[in-house]
Design brief:
A hairpin with a 2-residue loop joins strand 20 and strand 21. The chain has a 20-stranded antiparallel β-sheet that branches. Strands 4-3-7-1-28 form a 5-stranded antiparallel β-sheet, with no helix packed on it. A 3-stranded antiparallel β-sheet has the order 2-6-5. Among the domains are: 105 residues, no CATH class; 285 residues, Golgi alpha-mannosidase II, domain 4 (Beta-galactosidase, Chain A, domain 5, Distorted Sandwich); 38 residues, no CATH class; 144 residues, no CATH class. The chain has 905 residues and is an alpha+beta fold. The protein is built from 20 helices and 37 strands.
């Protein structure tokens, strides 16, 4: 049976449904159709976890193969049934299941693998229960019970294990600072704001998983800022719960700044100070493991049994059994109530402790990259907590205060108050670029598209993932290490590559890695080299930090042997030319965990930081620049749902679903901001009945959002379906189809005006921001021959001859068709859809021709040189840029999948 997140079935759309696919060539966008749901073996992304609260994943299905209301069963590797909760993530237009969502709990030991089949799910021994009351929601896992109020300051009133309160008063806290002090002098005012709940929604209610969504703002004395969305995840039989915290930065960043942002709980402590324990995990499984009042290392020995118990985190023997020289002087041993682990950079953390407020901090130790996990409690129970990507998202901090009292306080700081206040001010004064002409001149020299007032962070966002445990005692070192591993990388179940291919997932534009011939092996070596180079560059160049982690740089400076972090539009990539797509397709074909995690971090970053979620530009993303929000080009091609679909469907992540739903009506942004305002030659005023929208980067982003809302059957799915079909029909009806370049879009009808006069407009960027990929998905499922013909014409002629263009379009294409190698995948797609050997030959010859744009096709090897004179010694490859890496990667992956069997010898 479906869980609480089940959605409605599809309306019949017979005139637009694709005919059943008889071919097994899923790479052509037409997956083979089995008679029903097959068994799908599942495995852990990084091996069987030692610690598991729960795991959620999505599984794709070919069109027509699985009914939309199919129920599923799950079995462990030994054949035993495993409770599973399932729901539809996406439906095909005919109402059959496209993606199913599933979740399991950690109530039983994880299996090495599982098998998903059609059938009735096993029931969990202790199902999640959700009880909605007046003023609060109670969620029980069978081990812990959590009360969530529907208003007030607290996100969580209390977390109980049995009859004991393990934690209470869970709330968000932010520290607001008036401005930034540039020289460290002067006075700045700080104030603390707390979460204020506006709405609580139960999104899933079990039996295996419950999800509660909380929205609100931070408030104090009438000031409200930082709107937030928090989701709490509870799993059957679990002693932990997960929190996904997202906030929007609703400030321009000049007159106020974030000086601290965290999640805080109060932890009651009933055990005596010498039986209270603090754990802070460093790098690996090592941890600072101490008691609030230590009885080891004293001048007098309380006894070996006492010392061993305290070190191991167990209850010490009764004080009456201790050596009286210690027991009579316990009050003279300092109790250390405050602890903090501060990770202010990716390269170092410090641990300090003190007896209490008003007293000096005692250095404990230092390390490089902390695990982001801590614990406070004792034999009677305690509270463990962790922040994913702790050191990568610096400056972060774990705080434990007042552990020497009966009410300790735990704060997981997403932005450490020990760090300087968050500085989001624009990085230069404008350089006198007050007019469009001056700004275009600036673009000529630094590649930065500057415009006054556009370099604002107002409306950007960030998501953090936390986990909390209500434990019945102090964890052993082994358990604590397992908890830290679960914090670093939440255990993730995944589908095998073969099933993803057979289901035609994401347009079917990939096939398994194949090194069966020298030619194939060479391309695979190039793909591996490129990914490894970015992993190495990320670490050596320290592409980490709260706003930066997950992104990569755009271009390199061969003279300085650094990436151009400080040069206008050459700095952060911000999804330029689709590195997101390259990474996700690289994962889909390989199943590699390291690629998945890299792509996951990029999706978290680019969907939040590079896109506006509030203000006039909500729904638009920012072009690449020195700061993620600096460039004045705010465009659909960055915010496109195309880049988010992978993570959402592979993991069921609800936050990513929110981001895509935000875009369902993002065509409205074209009324606010004309993306080509600086280079228009004719006067133009945005008109809702005649919006100028390009058929490439603009429409592909809109189409991705509309398709996603339609297949997810969201609140606007019928509207989005009609807009998608209407624009497809009217693009196809243009005199020159996609080569017409753009059209006037009518927001009332959801259609383009069909132009009378043919035009030929080509842009090397039109097809490299997801147009290829979203069209592959559309042609999988929508039977619209005119649209297919228009797209295949574009695919054929881009790589064709002038004579062919003259004959079909009445004129020639632009001679400056850049990114030739990237566009060869269009010819490969046409070759498969049309069974055309000429197109296949053109695709391969263009891909392997060094004149096509990048020299990875010729007989030269990529190689590294070691550079010692940079700030840190680094590895350097001269001819790498992210534009070319992403587009070479996509071209290679898609050509191998589509026409790998036609590779010239």
């Amino acid at each position: 049976m479906w869980g609480a997140a089940a959605v409605g079935s599809a309306a019949p759309l017979a005139s637009f449904l694709s005919a059943p696919a008889a071919s097994a060539a899923s790479a052509a966008g037409r997956p083979a159709q089995p008679s029903g749901p097959s068994e799908v073996p599942l495995h852990w992304l990084e091996g069987r976890p030692a610690e598991l609260a729960g795991s959620s994943w999505g599984t794709p299905w070919p069109m027509g193969a699985v009914p939309g209301d199919q129920s599923f069963a799950l079995a462990a590797a030994d054949g035993s049934p495993v409770p599973v909760q399932s729901w539809p993530l996406a439906l095909w237009p005919d109402g059959s299941l496209k993606w199913s969502g599933h979740t399991i709990s950690g109530a039983q030991d994880p299996s090495d693998g599982y098998t998903l089949t059609a059938g009735s799910p096993a029931a969990p021994r202790s199902p999640v229960t959700v009880r909605e009351r007046r003023g609060h929601v109670d969620v029980g896992t069978g081990v812990i019970t959590t009360r969530i109020p529907t208003g007030g300051t607290d996100l969580i009133t209390r977390v109980m294990r049995g009859d004991r309160v393990i934690a209470k008063n869970g709330r968000l806290v932010s520290i607001r600072q008036d401005g930034i002090s540039d020289d460290g002098l002067g006075t700045v005012r700080r104030e603390e704001l707390l979460s204020d709940i506006e709405e609580v929604t139960v999104e899933q209610s079990g039996p295996v998983r419950a999800v509660v969504r909380i929205t609100g703002r931070h408030r104090r004395r009438g000031r409200a800022w930082l709107p937030f969305t928090v989701r709490l995840y509870f799993f059957a039989g679990a002693e932990s719960f997960r929190m996904v915290h997202s906030f929007v930065f609703d400030s321009e960043g000049r007159r106020e700044a974030i000086a601290g942002l965290g999640v805080r709980f109060t932890v009651p402590l009933d055990d005596e100070p010498h039986d209270r324990h603090v754990r802070l995990v460093g790098e690996g499984h090592g941890a600072m493991a101490e008691a609030v009042r230590p009885v080891t290392g004293l001048r007098r020995d309380p006894g070996g049994a006492v010392r061993r118990a305290q070190v191991e985190g167990r209850r010490t023997p009764d004080v009456s059994t201790w050596d009286t020289r210690v027991s009579s002087r316990l009050d003279l041993i300092p109790a250390f109530g405050d602890y903090k682990l501060s990770q202010l950079s990716s390269e170092g953390f410090t641990v300090l402790k003190r007896t209490g407020e008003g007293h000096g901090w005692v250095p404990v130790d230092q390390g490089r990259r902390a695990g982001g996990t801590g614990y406070v409690g004792g034999p009677s129970g305690g509270f463990a907590f962790g922040l994913k990507d702790f050191w990568q998202l610096h400056p972060t901090q774990l705080d434990i205060r007042n552990a020497h009292t009966r009410q300790a306080q735990v704060t997981v700081w997403l932005w450490s108050p020990d760090a300087p206040a968050m500085d989001t001010r624009f990085y230069h004064d404008g350089l006198g670029q007050d007019t469009y002409e001056e700004q275009l001149e600036g673009l000529e020299i630094t590649y930065e598209d500057y415009e006054p007032g556009f370099g604002t962070p107002y409306g950007i966002a960030r998501t953090s993932e936390l986990t909390f445990w209500a434990l019945d005692g102090t964890p052993s070192p082994e358990r604590l290490g397992a908890v830290a591993d679960a914090v670093r990388a939440a255990p993730q179940l995944v589908n095998p590559v073969g099933h993803l291919v057979d289901a035609g997932a994401f347009g079917g534009l990939f096939a398994p890695v194949d090194r069966s011939t020298p030619q194939r092996a060479r391309i695979e070596d190039n793909l591996d080299f490129l990914f490894d180079y970015y992993v190495t560059s990320q670490d050596q160049r320290h592409w980490y930090g709260f706003w930066d982690y997950g992104d990569v740089m755009h271009s390199q400076d061969g003279d300085r042997k650094v990436w151009r972090y400080d040069i206008g539009g050459y700095a952060w990539a911000n999804s330029e030319l689709s590195p997101d797509l390259w990474l996700w397709y690289a994962y889909l074909r390989s199943g590699r965990a390291d690629i998945f995690r890299f792509a996951e971090a990029m999706t978290r970053h680019t969907g939040e930081v590079d896109v506006y979620h509030a203000g006039d530009w909500a729904g638009l993303g920012t072009r690449h620049g020195v700061q993620h929000w600096a460039d004045s080009a705010k465009q659909q091609r960055i915010s496109t749902a195309t880049y988010r679909r992978f993570y959402h469907y592979l993991t069921t992540d609800e936050r990513t679903g929110d981001l895509m739903r935000e875009l369902a009506r993002s065509e409205e942004t074209f009324l606010v901001l004309d993306p080509i305002r600086k280079i228009r030659e004719e006067p133009y005023e945005p008109d809702p009945r005649a919006l100028a929208i390009g058929f490439g980067t603009d429409w592909s982003g809109l189409a991705a959002a509309w398709l996603t809302e339609w297949e997810r059957r969201g609140p606007l799915w019928e509207e989005c379906r009609d807009k998608l079909l209407g624009t497809m029909e009217t693009i196809a009806a243009q005199p020159n189809g996609f080569f017409q370049g753009s059209g006037r879009y009518d927001m009332e009808t959801g259609r383009f005006e069909v132009q009378e006069e043919p035009a030929i407009t080509t842009s090397h960027l039109a097809a490299v921001f997801g147009l290829v990929e979203i069209n592959a998905e559309l042609l999988q499922q929508i039977d619209m021959p005119e649209f297919e013909a228009a797209w295949l014409q574009y695919c054929r002629l881009w790589n064709g001859t002038d004579a062919e263009a003259e004959e079909e379009l009445g004129g020639r294409l632009s001679p400056n068709r850049n990114l030739r190698q990237a566009h060869t995948r269009l010819a490969a797609y046409a070759a498969v859809r049309l069974d055309d050997d000429t197109q296949a030959e053109r695709a391969w010859s263009g891909f392997l021709d060094p004149r096509a744009g990048w020299e990875y096709g010729r007989d030269t090897e990529l190689h590294l040189e070691r550079v010692e004179h940079t700030l840190n010694p680094t590895d350097w490859c001269e001819n790498v840029s992210t534009n070319n890496s992403a587009q070479y990667g996509l071209a290679a992956i898609q050509i191998l999948a589509l026409i790998g069997d036609r590779m010239p010898r």
